[in-house]
Design brief:
Shape: globular
Mean pLDDT: 91
Largest sheet: 3 strands, antiparallel
Distance between the termini: 22 Å
Helix content: 40-55%
Low-confidence stretches: 146-150
Order of helices and strands: EEHHHEHHHH
Number of helices: 7
Structural class: mainly alpha
Length: 217
């Protein structure tokens, strides 16, 4: 079992590469995950509405209401688990739970440290202006805009290469796992920042998988 973890800031992304993995289940995981996609469609609508409410709360009180923060964190956790299972990494055959909670037994985990105070000034600009350089980068990772290969972003392409390799060798390449988790970690950090959940600017740094490290690429 391979572990990938991030401990550099308020956003902690952890993943474990399950072994053995089915050689062919990845072909239908996206179908099996359809119930999750339906639920997540509505959860993300709620996520956007909650973020709007949080925007005004932070602007007037410098605080992100804890119940709203926990809900949005739950949506991010749920999304990361489904992505890890169905398309973003394909690193487990364990079906993701229908849950907003932390689910510590699942191989894909996410946490964001709750901020006691947030800047009123930053809340006005960080989600659209300050995050623009990161949006350009993660657009390539996720396939947003025109940065696409066969309709998918870099993350999807690398995950596909990994599972095709798995189909022929029965092994998910460790180097690809580390890289794909690192790319997803970058995306999740930026998402949490843009969703006003932290004032700490995401680093322009690819922290890849493996054990927790003191240095990064």
């Amino acid at each position: 079992m391979t572990t990938a973890a991030d401990s550099y800031g308020p956003v902690t992304v952890t993943a474990e590469l399950d072994a053995p993995l089915s050689r062919w289940l990845w072909l239908i995981k996206w179908i099996l995950a359809i119930p999750h996609y339906i639920v997540l469609f509505f959860l993300w609508i709620a996520f956007l509405l909650v973020s709007l409410i949080a925007f005004f709360a932070i602007l007037f009180t410098e605080r992100y209401p804890r119940a709203l923060f926990d809900f949005n964190l739950g949506v991010l956790r749920w999304s990361w688990r489904v992505s890890y299972y169905a398309h973003g990494v394909l690193g487990t055959d364990r079906y993701p739970p229908f849950s907003l909670g932390p689910e510590p037994g699942y191989p894909a985990r996410l946490d964001v440290a709750y901020p006691e105070r947030l800047s009123r000034g930053l809340v006005l600009v960080k989600w659209w202006l300050l995050a623009i350089p990161h949006y350009l980068v993660i657009g390539i990772f996720t396939g947003a805009g025109h940065a696409r290969w066969c309709g998918v972003g870099l993350i999807g392409l690398l995950a596909l290469i990994a599972v095709v390799t798995l189909a022929f060798t029965a092994k998910y390449p460790r180097d690809l796992f580390d890289l794909v988790v690192g790319l997803n970690r970058w995306v999740l950090r930026v998402t949490a920042y843009a969703a006003l959940m932290t004032d700490e600017y995401p680093p322009f740094r690819l922290d890849m998988g493996g054990e927790e490290r003191t240095t990064a690429l």
